[in-house]
Amino acid sequence: MPVCWASPITSSRRATCPPPCHYQFCLGVLGGMPATVENLIYLKDRIPTGSHGPLFGIGAAHLPILYAALALGGHIRVGMEDNVIFGKDENGKKIMATNQMLVQRAVEAIKLFGNQPATPPRPVKFWASRRWFAEGGRYERF
């Protein structure tokens, strides 16, 4: 369930989506909640116990939300559908992103936080079973 503001969470708590639910937190989209760490924590604290989902920010909010999500022990999502600018060079010129660049940066960030990125078989197994990874670790509760 995509979440750009708080109402989908309260709606899903009314038994339209019995927990555990999969939420996809999207912050910074036009008409949605601003991409702030405070809003991320607000949403995270309101999802039903056992629910999960990746977090991502749109555009300039991409990196702050990525790092905040990792710091909170959550899953992240990256890709050009959310962010087309990788950064700026030393002259201030925008560097256009590729999916490979965005994924590589996310992998480096995940490892800096002491975790291992999911390889393709893990997410497939995870989504097929509709539960957290059985291996344990920081990703169990988010």
Q: Any overview of this molecule?
A:
The chain has helices spanning 7-16, 37-44, 62-71, 99-112, 121-129; strands spanning 2-3, 24-27, 54-57, 75-76, 85-88, 94-96. It is of the alpha/beta class. The strands form two sheets. The chain has a four-stranded parallel beta sheet with strand order 1-2-3-4. Strands 5-6 form a two-stranded antiparallel ribbon. The longest helix is centred in the last third of the chain and has 14 residues, at 99-112.
Distance between the termini: 15 Å
Tell me roughly what share of residues is in helical segments: 25-40%
Question: In what order do the strands lie side by side in the largest sheet?
Answer: 1-2-3-4
Percent range for β-strand residues: 5-15%
Overall 3D form: globular
Individual helix count: 5
Unreliable parts: 130-142
Overall pLDDT:
77
The largest pleated sheet is described as:
4 strands, parallel
Classification by helices and strands: alpha/beta
SS elements, strand count: 6
Give the gist of this structure.
This protein is 36% helix and 13% strand. It is α/β, with parallel strands linked by helices and 142 residues long.
Furnish the topology, listing elements before pairings.
Blueprint: E1 2-3, H1 7-16, E2 24-27, H2 37-44, E3 54-57, H3 62-71, E4 75-76, E5 85-88, E6 94-96, H4 99-112, H5 121-129
Parallel strand pairs: 1-2, 2-3, 3-4
Antiparallel strand pairs: 5-6
